[in-house]
Amino acid sequence: MATTELADPIPWLVLLPLAWATAAFVLGPGRGGRLAVAGLAVQAALALALAAEVLEAGPRRYAVGGWAAPLGIELLADGLAAFMLATTAAVALPVAVYARGYFRAVSRSDAHPKGATWFWPLTGYLVAALDVLFLAADLFNLYVGLELLGLAAVGLTALTGERAAVAAALRYLLASLLGSGAYLMGVALVYGAYGTVSLATLAPLIEPLPAVALAAGLMAAGLALKTALFPLHFWLPPAHGGAASPVSALLSALVVKASFYLLLRLWFGIYAPLTTAAAAQLLGALGAAAVVWGSVQALRQERLKMLVAYSTVAQLGYLFLVFPLATGTGPAAAAAAWGGALLQVLAHGLAKAAMFAAAGAMVLAAGRDAVAGLGGVGARLPLSLFAFALAGVTLMGLPPSGGFTAKWLLLRAALASGQWWWAAVLVVGGLLAAAYVFRVLRQAFLPVEAASTGGVPRSLEFAALALALGGVLLGLFGERPLALLGVG
Amino acid sequence: MSAGLFYALTGGLLFALGLAGLILRAHVLRKLLAFNILGSGAFLVLVGLGGRDGTPDPVTQAMVLTGIVVAVAATALGLALARRLLELTGDMALPGEAPHGDD
User: Fold this and answer.
1) Which residues of B touch A210 (CB under 8 A)?
2) How many CB atoms lie within 10 A of CB A232?
3) In terms of DSSP H, where are the helices of chain B?
4) pLDDT digit string (tens) for A382-429?
């Protein structure tokens, strides 16, 4: 591939969000939204170009500043990385369009607009951190990406400055620091054993030594905490449910997936010689518990955004089924499980961003964040409610949505590897998701009970709808993303 | 026992102490201090195991330096949030944990 240095998309995927985030910071509080939308549109084009390049010509390496691997920092774009980069851009662009409308609407209805002040710079840093994490090719750069991501996410959580949001952000920060601290300890042990942090160099070296097993355990535990795997999910619902709605969408759709991506990469990458069926079954069992516990909690929430946040806890559980389904099973089952989990990453990313976006619009229109206060919303915001329902279709896993394809692949992997009990989790999880989605829809179709506070800008509703449609259409056009995963 | 191994074991001990403090203490300032002890433990392991035959490894030094910058930034963010929490609630503990003035 004869790309010149400047036309190479890899460095721009990181530099571009850094540039517009810094420009937005310099412009001042609340400014920079237009810049961010333009930047993210270019970002989406770059991510798609990179994905097409990787699909055609295989994995790409990039030496930052022209310094090769042992001395400099190397970035690696393989199929998995390109998939995650495209997912990030696909979710972040509609959310940015949504956020512009959202903060305009909030500042109109409230004398003291909350949350708009530093949203754009922090979002830019968040996107840059995500991209650097997906492209990193060594354990230490992954650590730096993880920390940058955590700091940007905590800052976004605290933006509204309200009591609950600040407490949630602080709890989130402490959980995030503990998770990355454990990860860093693992890096230290691996470096002590092998004298390198490069994933490519480590892959053939790793053996089941006690120190390396300890490192793998610490890293897995730290990443499970950051991915909010049950029972380490305590920090997620208040943070995701209490943040401003565009922030909730970014956190739930993208941020928790980054630590999952890292766990996936390490488990099936350098730590493959260490992984055991028992450890994989444990992760799968915790994922199954998350599906049931998160869904039951979602059913019991009084607040709409807390309901959606607990639904994230449940949906993250499905991702962890990949560990029992692809560890030590046949190649057919492993490929299906792998494809199912990553399609779930993308489908849930689109659907959950849509759901938080729609929920944010409905909360704005209803004037309060309560499931019981949604009466009449169906008549006033039909588009938002439709987006919420479409996103619900993906979360339930009904055809033809992306959620259906993802769960179908996981189901095939469960049956092909003779582990039928994971299939039961998929069925129960789908039914419970239907229960909490219909609980919201039922309320929204009830007649108006409270005085309405007016409508919301159309851009809010259309952005939510675009995300929800993306999640559904993914079921029809899922082959190309899946083909990408086979590269590298 | 070599000096490197001694540093590494001390680092492991500090990491465990920090972990316990982060989980068991309710006061936010103590939690942040515990995080710094935990981080220092990881840095000490990195530097201790990194050296070969008494020669320090420049790569680990660079990594620890980066780690310190990250830890300082994280601590500053934590302190800013803790101050805001104190202004809003008059308490330096997260809601749902032990009330003020316990330890």
Assistant:
1) none
2) 19
3) 3-24, 28-50, 58-89
4) 999 999 999 999 999 998 899 999 999 999 999 999 999 999 999 999
What is the distance in angstroms between the CA of the first residue and the CA of the last residue of chain B? 38
pLDDT tens digits for range A291-317: 999 999 999 999 999 999 999 999 999
Q: Does A188 touch chain B (CB under 8 A)?
A: yes
Distance CA A291, CA A175 (A): 21
| Chain B CB within 8 Å of residue A149 CB | no
Would you call B38 and A166 a contact, using CB atoms and an 8 Å cutoff? no
The secondary element (H helix, E strand) that includes residue B96 is: none
Residue A451 pLDDT: 56
Instruction: Establish if B77 touches chain A: CB-CB under 8 angstroms.
Output: yes
Confidence of residue A452 (pLDDT cuts 50, 70, 90): low
Residue A108 has pLDDT above 80, yes or no: no
Q: Is residue B97 part of a domain?
A: no
Task: Give the residue among A294, A297, A282 at the shortest CA–CA distance from A256.
Answer: A294
Which residue is it, tokens 């179908």?
A408
Say if the Cβ atoms of A161 and B84 lie within 8 Å: yes
Q: Is A454 left (phi over 0), alpha (psi -120 to 50) or beta?
A: left
Query: Which residue range(s) make up the domain with B50?
Result: 3-89
Chain A to chain B Cβ contacts (< 8 Å)? 94
Q: How many domains does chain B have?
A: 1
B15/A191 touch (CB, cutoff 8 Å), yes or no? no
Measure in Å the smallest separation between the Cα of A191 and chain B Cα atoms: 7
CB A395 within 8 A of CB A403: yes
Residue among A166, A178, A188 whose CB faces B81 most closely: A166
CB A33 within 8 A of CB A98: no
- B51 Cβ under 8 Å from any chain A Cβ: no
Residue A373, CA atoms < 13 Å, CB-side half-sphere: 18
Give the model confidence (pLDDT) of B15-27 as tens digits: 999 999 999 999 9
Q: Which of A148, A154, A163 sits opposite B88 (nearest CB)?
A: A163
CA distance B99 to chain A (A): 14
CA torsion angle A184 A186 A187 A188 (round to 10): 90
Taking the C-alpha atoms of residue A477 and residue A346, their distance in angstroms, rounded to an integer, is: 12
Is B102 contained in some domain?
no
Going residue by residue through chain B (103 aa), what tens digit of pLDDT does each one get? 688 889 999 999 999 999 999 999 999 999 999 999 999 999 999 999 887 777 778 889 999 999 999 999 999 999 999 999 999 988 888 877 755 444 4
Q: Is the residue at B8 inside a domain?
A: yes
The yes-or-no verdict on residue A1 having pLDDT over 60 is no
Q: What is the CATH number of the domain that holds B20?
A: 1.10.287.3510
Q: What is the ipTM of this complex?
A: 0.94
pLDDT at residue A453, as a whole number: 59
Radius of gyration of chain B (CA): 17
Is A7:A49 a contact under the CB 8 Å cutoff?
no
pLDDT tens across A118-134, in order? Answer: 999 999 999 999 999 99
Does B94 reside within a domain? no
